[in-house]
Design goal:
It is built from three helices and eight strands. The protein is an alpha+beta fold and about 190 residues long. The protein has one domain: Peptide deformylase (Peptide Deformylase), CATH 3.90.45.
Amino acid sequence: MPVHRIRLLGDPLLRTGCQAVTKPNSPAVRVVLDGMKETLHDWQARFGSGRAIAAPQIGAPLRLVYVNVDRPWTLINPEIIDIGTDDFTVWDDCFSFPDLLVRVSRAHEIKVRYQDETGTEQEVQLEGDMAELLQHEIDHLDGVLAVDRPHGLDPFCMREEWDRLYGKEGRYGAPEPRAAGFTAGVL
């Protein structure tokens, strides 16, 4: 199965709401899922990062997500059916804008309903980094990107600068940016 080109910020397909999959175990769905898997594995091998990919990122406007964290996991027609009351902030990054990070606010806990590769309906409760990851990927299926959800002052940071300023703290531990330079009223 070929590795696909990742669609980048500005590509109109990334803003398209994806169609529900009606035949989860069809050959056409299998071809798209195989392409997603190969593309994610290629990214991980080349860059040492990446946890999941959504179908529109490889040009397929279908409600499919492939996750590879500890084990492979396919979600067909995923939807968030419950959201906890606590939020947290994270510096979100994305294959579709690899040189940019965006500080966003995400629910700490969610419940997701989806179909597995056999078409069987499943539900899973997620929290922390996995909840954040699935919110990001399901947003892709709705044509929403992290750049649409900026949180706080100065929520955008180029990766090189972010690595320099916050890299040691990580995506979940980096502090809110603070103004540098002159103090107001002191000249």
